[in-house]
Amino acid sequence: MADSDFVKHDQGGVNARILARESKADFRRVEAASLKLKASFASAEGKRLFIRYFNTFQLGIHFISVIARTRLSHDDVAKVEGHIRTQMERVAEELNRALDGAEALFKANGISSAATYDTVPLELEVGVLSSSSRRYLEILGKLDQLMPVLQTLEIHEVITAQAVDIERAAFKRKVRDVANTARNLATRMRREMNTLDARQAPGESGSTAVPQDPGSSATGQSEPAEAIQAGLEDAGAKEDVEDASLPPHERPEASATPRAAA
What we know:
The protein is mainly alpha-helical.
């Protein structure tokens, strides 16, 4: 008897519910061209993180790389871009190590196939605005690949259910933090642009601020650079505090590779 004879499976209702609960991102002011890429997410975690955070990241990094660069120091913008890129590289490397570790456990335990989902995959065409957005989309894809692999190891009792929960929560937080960092730094840079406008308004009404050169701010003062640097330090300190607050087995260096159950 086939499983379909006595089990009702999802016919797309799960995806509809996920999409219905999220508000649409406002891209009406984004005039940049985008590369249309096919994306597919099968896991519950991958679907929800993509829907909730991909566009948040895209809007944040677009503001930083395109809009802020027209008003603030190019060096300051490059520092912010570099911080986000480094964060993404670190998360991608940890996901790669986790996938490699899981593959090794599959081979060591004679596991030939991974668990699959009975829900309909979330398949859509994504407009990617930048290389940073493409990298973030790849990170989401890696997380989506890892989720059923971890579940497979738990089903075979190679790792415990608790270990799966720890790994799942840790990687969801890391992927989410990338988008939140981009959003928070974009907000800080927007404030600095508003501050520049307020300073120039009394004597330059109707004029348009233009950066003096790639290495200086629009007013020639150091306040915007200092404020942006403070934002970078806040973002880095937040990551360090969050990692330090985790139990030892949940920290990045400990959670990158699934461990076999005792």
